[in-house]
Design a protein that fits this description.
Blueprint lengths: L1 H25 L6 E5 L5 E5 L2 E6 L4 E4 L5 E8 L5 E9 L5 E5 L3
Parallel strand pairs: 1-7
Antiparallel strand pairs: 1-4, 2-3, 2-5, 5-6
Length: 103
């Protein structure tokens, strides 16, 4: 009998932990920028005029919690040529995925 109670408690605690993890993902209020660089060039990403990161050819990078609201995302090649400029509007908790396939 005691073993069944312990087992039931373990199962219940596991379910609580699993539900808490799911809720954190669902209720994530961060607005993230994810850049997928499918181009053959390394690109520097700017957000609102500030350098955010370098994303290498064939890879991806993200910038966590850029905040809700309007942002300008730019991608420049190694010579400083503008590859992309896009104004985006993010709601709280909304992520923006940007795929770059040319440089």
């Amino acid at each position: 009998m005691r073993i069944l109670r312990v087992l039931a408690l373990v199962v219940a605690l596991t379910a609580v932990v699993a539900l808490t993890s799911c809720n954190e993902d669902v209720l994530d209020a961060e607005s993230d920028l994810v850049v997928l660089n499918e181009s053959p060039c390394d690109l520097t990403i700017y957000v609102d005029g500030r350098e955010a990161f370098l994303v290498q050819a064939g890879s991806d990078m993200s910038l966590d919690d850029i905040g809700a609201g309007r942002h300008v995302v730019e991608a420049l090649d190694i010579r400083g040529n503008l590859v992309l400029r896009r104004a985006i509007e993010l709601a709280s908790g909304e992520d923006y995925y940007c795929t770059l396939d040319t440089c």
